[in-house]
Protein: Aspartyl/glutamyl-tRNA(Asn/Gln) amidotransferase subunit C
Amino acid sequence: MSIDTDTAARIATLARIKVEEDALPELAQEFNTILGFIEQLGEVDVEGVEPMTSVTPMRLRRREDVVTEGGQQDKVLSNAPDAREGFFAVPKVVE
Structure:
């Protein structure tokens, strides 16, 4: 797949990034380079390779799951601009 300047401009618009007109050819080339790297990754044989979370084998540290500081509903709702019946109240957005 090849990215042209029109496509690069569209991507920049979708990403809400302001790109000057004269910088679009360079941006399109960068996108093409990235796509080339992705195509190279698709050629790698990963048969038999197990997924990993780190380059060194280690177990993730986990904390004990305990309930702390519960029962603060009134304190939390005191920061809300509008609260009703123990819940945050928000404006209706769907008719």
Q: What stands out?
A: Residues 24-42 form the longest helix (19 residues). Strands lie at 83-84, 87-88. The first strand starts at residue 83 and ends at 84.
